[in-house]
From TrEMBL:
The lineage of its organism: Bacteria, Pseudomonadati, Bacteroidota, Flavobacteriia, Flavobacteriales. SUPFAM superfamilies: cAMP-binding domain-like. CDD domains: CAP_ED. Gene3D superfamilies: Jelly Rolls. Residues 33-118 form the Cyclic nucleotide-binding domain. It comes from Elizabethkingia anophelis R26. This is Crp/Fnr family transcriptional regulator. Transmembrane segments: none annotated.
C-alpha cells in the first residue's frame, strides 16, 4: 500500500472501523491522480464522476460570473475532500472549475466503484452518511454566518477554524471565499493584528 492510499485508509478509520478484509476490498478501487500547480481537475461542461480525497497539496473550487470575475466556493487542503457534488450526484455538467493551487496528489474513487463499495463494505456507506451530515452542517453554518455577521467576525471565525489555510492560498482567493474585496481583506487583517497587540 502506497503512502497516499494508507493516508486515505487512516482517514476512513477515524470515522468507521475497517478490518483487513475491508481494506483489501477498498484498495483496488482507488486511483492516484497527480496535478501540477494550476492544473484543472474539473472544468465547466465536464461531469464529475469521482469522489476526491486530497492527500497532498491544495485546490480551490470556483465559478466565473458574466463579467468574468472568480467566486471561490471551496478551498481544500490535505485530508479534505473536494468535488462538485451537484455534478457528481445529478450526473450533469459542472458549472465550476476545480484547480490545483499547489502541486497536488489526490486519491479518487470512481462513482461506480463507490457504489460497489457501499454493498461490499457497508462501513463505507456509513462513512459517507456521516461525512455528508457534517458537510451539510458546515454549509448551513457558513450560510448563517454570511447572513448574520459582519465581515470582520466572519474573517476571525475563518482563521480560528482554519489556521493553516491563510498561508496556503493567495489573498484574492480567501477574499473571494469570504465574499469581500482583497483591499477589504487587507484592512481586516491589519485590524486583527492591531486588536491582538
Amino acid at each position: 500500500m502506497d503512502k497516499y492510499t494508507a493516508q486515505l485508509i487512516a482517514h476512513f478509520k477515524e470515522i468507521v472501523p475497517l478490518d483487513e478484509n475491508d481494506i483489501k476490498t477498498i484498495i483496488p478501487k482507488l486511483e492516484i491522480k497527480e496535478l501540477d500547480r494550476k492544473d484543472y481537475l474539473l472544468q465547466p461542461g465536464q461531469i464529475s464522476r469521482h469522489m476526491r480525497f486530497i492527500a497532498k497539496g491544495s485546490l480551490h473550487t470556483y465559478y466565473t460570473d458574466d463579467a468574468g470575475r472568480e467566486h471561490t466556493m471551496q478551498l481544500g487542503i490535505e485530508n479534505w475532500w473536494i468535488n462538485d457534488l451537484y455534478s457528481y450526484l445529478s450526473e450533469s455538467a459542472s458549472r465550476m472549475y476545480i484547480q490545483a493551487v499547489e502541486d497536488t496528489t489526490l486519491v479518487q474513487i470512481h462513482k461506480n466503484n463507490l457504489e460497489l463499495l457501499y454493498k461490499e463494505v457497508p462501513k463505507i456507506s456509513e462513512f459517507w452518511r456521516l461525512k455528508m451530515q457534517g458537510a451539510y452542517l458546515i454549509l448551513q453554518e457558513r450560510t448563517f454566518e454570511n447572513m448574520r455577521f459582519d465581515a470582520y467576525t466572519r474573517y476571525k471565525t475563518f482563521i480560528t477554524n482554519y489556521p493553516d489555510i491563510e498561508r496556503r492560498f493567495p489573498q484574492y482567493m480567501i477574499a473571494s471565499y469570504l465574499g469581500i474585496t482583497i483591499e477589504y481583506l487587507s484592512a481586516l487583517r491589519k485590524k486583527h493584528i492591531a486588536d491582538r497587540s
